[in-house]
């Protein structure tokens, strides 16, 4: 007889089946969360911060009418920063005019600009805003207009845990500012029971005699005043700190930025960001023109610019080559070719880079219009006087694609390409014995001209190390070399499982009867074994050790020096007189990057040099 399972057991079983997966998932999550690597750094959420950000704008006036564009730019940038509010330090209109309509016109231009701010803004009265053209203390015409259109001459307000005060420094209507006792008494009353106080005024009264600054300061030092900020002098400076109160002078934001040679004189267009947190603050100076909105560059423009910058040397570059100007001046024609990867016509100008000291090009500038998806080309004649070997650098061209973005702004996108040089080198013959010790102590080395090695393909990662120098000599049996290489980190990775060479390398390449042969030497291989590479890829696991090649390396912390000998039969077989030849240095500084410098362009045997003896 089959017994029926009790009802309560069925319910319990179903509940367990429903709860158990969730319980197991929760347990695994806890275990994974707690299973940290011993000593692992923990990451915690940042503490919440209560901050106020205030932008302070400097003087607008005293300069050219075009200065309003600087203020407009500043307003644009401030909107990207999204502060709590903005304070203008005064001198908002040019003023000093007998024509009220002119004053009102200047007012409209200024307010139309400031009203584009996405946050509230508060004015400080400056002398340009309130003075009469006659500087008559009895003439309050523009002071009244100021109050009508801007508001009170002095006032204050609270914001969060801070108190902000706007003072009026031109109530005497004279060039020398005065803060009246009436204002000081108002200030004393205003500051009662306030904290984190910041005071703003147009003229820095602490820099004037008989301005009542002493009474002003004696008053404010009784209260928790953090800083006093002024304008007027058109130069930014952090002034004195007295009794814990920091004084500042603001420069200009569209006003006259007097030119005294350098922005470190204080005369430059800027605005400041005052960041207040609890009872501390930071004052940052922001140069106008350094803040952009998040759509400054959009994906459509970036992808098109990328198409230009990603062009290969086979798409845009230089065809042809010249002999290196070692024994005599050289002149020859090369072809400039330019590809347009975009779907619109694009103007491209091509000229020698500005750092080409000895090379000249005719014409000096090529201006091409390249149709979409097409290539344009033109011939250029390059010339150079005869040079010492250490003065020779590959001639480098700058290709400027004039790209117009989605906002209609046109700007250059620059890529660089190098023309190729070949060299002929007659190997110095010797009859004496050579001690392979890396010391270059045989006298004949001093009689030999070096082979200089260069970077033939431009790269933004290129370093300014001196070109490696390699000296060559030979007798009836061996090719001898001595290499001086600027290098401070010495590398040899014995593990050959990687497809790239992560070691310092010196290589020697020959082309005999159309067959390439590459001898690879690792200067810091303690076993002092040389290898023959399978092909130009130099894959370590495919290299074959070879006997009879000797070398020795010494260092001094800035350079390494490698001396060695290679049997002629290995490099040149039975070839005599001359062969296409190349040699190069690969520098690895214990990192993922390799730096190649070679005597001639290595990727195409047609551009190798000629070694003769």
CA distance, first residue to last residue: 109 Å
CATH architecture call of the largest domain: 4-Layer Sandwich
Number of domains: 3
Query: What is the number of helices?
Result: 9
Strand content: 25-35%
Q: Rg, please? A: 38 Å
- Average of the residue pLDDT scores: 93
Query: What kind of oligomer do you see?
Result: single chain
Secondary-structure blueprint:
Blueprint: H1 7-34, E1 51-57, H2 67-81, E2 85-88, H3 100-114, E3 121-123, H4 127-130, H5 141-149, E4 155-159, E5 162-166, H6 181-191, E6 197-200, H7 213-220, E7 225-230, E8 237-242, E9 245-249, E10 270-277, E11 280-287, H8 299-309, E12 317-319, E13 321-323, E14 330-339, E15 346-352, E16 360-362, E17 365-370, E18 375-384, E19 396-404, E20 410-418, E21 420-422, E22 424-426, E23 428-429, E24 451-452, E25 469-474, E26 478-486, E27 505-512, E28 515-521, E29 530-532, E30 544-546, E31 550-555, E32 559-567, H9 568-572, E33 578-587, E34 595-598, E35 609-612
Parallel strand pairs: 1-2, 2-3, 5-6, 6-7, 7-9, 13-21, 22-35, 23-25
Antiparallel strand pairs: 1-10, 4-5, 8-9, 10-11, 12-14, 14-18, 15-17, 15-19, 16-18, 19-20, 24-25, 25-26, 26-32, 27-28, 27-33, 28-29, 29-30, 31-32, 33-34, 33-35
Helix pairs in contact: 2-3, 6-7
